[in-house]
Design a protein that fits this description.
single chain, mainly beta, two-stranded antiparallel sheet, 39% strand
Length: 147
């Protein structure tokens, strides 16, 4: 038998009236085949899960958020705010920048740095790019939805 191949699948859906979510999951060959099966074990046509139902199905199958070339979780709000989260193997992780970035419409950016799921530091960037480090033991990160 050959080695197990990993595929990436992007799932997008509307989350409430004012938010749009995009998630990228890593899936193995077995899950990929199950997802693309068109008939159930009795030969009946099978509905394919889509949107949020697909995200729930993937989580139940043990698939993890993972994206090798960009954020694995993006939530866009109607007001213009945006949350981006970078994952590797289901853990918040990014080598070359913050793993969580909250973009505010006024130009502020809240950045949280993680390495292999371990919190490293918080920063707030003003619209002019000035970074203000926050204490890890200080107030919690601005509220944002978790994936």
């Amino acid at each position: 038998m050959g080695s197990e191949q990993t595929f990436h699948i992007t799932v997008a859906y509307q989350d409430g009236p004012d938010a749009h979510v995009t998630k990228v999951y890593a899936i193995d060959t077995k899950t990929f085949r199950k997802l693309h099966r068109t008939k159930d074990w009795l030969g009946r046509a099978r509905d394919q899960p889509t949107g949020e139902a697909l995200a729930v199905w993937l989580r139940k199958k043990g698939c993890k958020l993972d994206s090798p070339d960009g954020p694995a979780f993006v939530q866009r709000y109607a007001c213009g705010n945006r949350v981006e989260e970078y994952y590797r193997n289901g853990e918040k992780h990014r080598d070359d920048g913050p793993a969580v970035v909250v973009h505010k419409t006024d130009g502020r950016r809240y950045e949280t740095y993680y390495v292999r799921g371990n919190l490293q530091k918080y920063l707030v960037r003003s619209p002019n790019g000035t970074a203000i480090p926050l204490s890890l033991s200080g107030p919690p990160h601005p509220r944002y939805p978790s994936p």
